[in-house]
Amino acid sequence: MNAVHSTQTTGVSPSNPLALIVPAFLLQALIMGSVCPAAKSQEDSCILNYDVDNNGTVNYSDLLSFQFFYGTFVSAPEPDTCFLPITNGIQIPDGNADGWVNHIDLLGFLTEWGTSCPASSYGPCGINFSMKYKGHTYALAEIDGRCWFANNLQVSSYRNGDFIPGDVYETVWNTTEEGARAIYGEGSSPCYSGNCDQSQALASYGQLYNYFAVIDERGLCPEGWHVPTDEEWYAVTDALGGEEVAGIVLKAPECASPGWNGTNTSRFTGLPGGIRTSAGDFIYEGDFGYWWSSTAQGMNDGWRRSLSTDGDHVGIADADQRVGQSVRCIKD
Questions:
Q1: pLDDT tens track, the chain, 332 positions
Q2: Chain centroid, CA 15 distance in Å
Q3: 24-32 vs 60-70: helix axis angle to the nearest 10?
Q4: How many other C-beta atoms can be found within 10 angstroms of the C-beta atom of residue 117?
């Protein structure tokens, strides 16, 4: 996505990559912990996205880790909207908004907050900015004081290990009352819009699940997590300004890969993954994203939320339980 540029410095040992970006006197001061006095109380809201090595503190070792992974400079063409992933779901912003993510941003953070940001300052997601579940890594996002998956679910089995039927032919999909999943464009089922390459869809959007899978007591989400209720979805949109405007901050930015046309200031990273209809065909990839709630509407439907390329609103509607839609998890 972004270009990576490494600076070559004569006489610098590769065993000490931090020396490529930090002068010797400053490096020594960082290691000794005698530089970057805390200008703000650590009881304040600490900017947590700088813990590159994911050890629960922000200190000089994060400078070394950044240099190891990305060299001296990484371009950030839209620093106000696009956050560059580093490793394990950790993300580093362009703190001084100069168009580059580099050691200056990390040094600026240390100058402002001191040499350590304790884990006790972390929010509902703890010290983690990602988690692994059933072989996949999911970024995490704090939204309105709750911890959400920032990627769509893509599991093929329930929490207890039981298999969720997939690659289901449309004549079975539209009659089943059991949990089922699909990948956009898979198999021989009709695909009427968007990119119907199922491998690309899986990588970008995860899997689509019918409502029977969402409410199955064996659980789609990890232990201690659940599919959000309709009430929890309302809480998110209310916190982000209401359903008429919240869509823009829930959608991924254009500079992301894959991206959309939002700002993603919520870090929800919504993408237009489309839908599998109750008839079993695939539509709307690239135009709409749909997410289940776990709340039923009547005997045959469930509540959902949607985002659209053409608007900044959040759609609220009910959908047939046989429809295949994306799923997010929220921490209990």
A1: 333 333 333 333 333 333 334 443 333 333 333 222 333 333 332 333 455 555 655 565 665 665 555 444 444 333 333 433 333 333 445 566 666 656 666 666 666 555 554 444 457 887 667 889 999 999 888 899 899 999 999 999 999 999 999 999 999 999 999 999 999 999 999 999 999 999 999 999 999 999 999 999 999 999 999 999 999 999 999 999 999 999 999 999 887 788 899 988 888 999 999 999 999 999 999 999 999 999 999 999 999 999 999 999 999 999 999 999 999 999 99
A2: 33
A3: 130
A4: 24
**What does the domain layout of the chain look like in residue ranges?**
4-121, 130-331
Whole-angstrom distance, CA of residue 61 vs CA of residue 36: 14
Secondary structure of 268-299 in HEC code, one letter for each residue: CCECCCEEECCCCCEECCCCEEEEEEEEEECC
Give the closest residue to 255 by CA, choosing from 47, 49, 3.
3
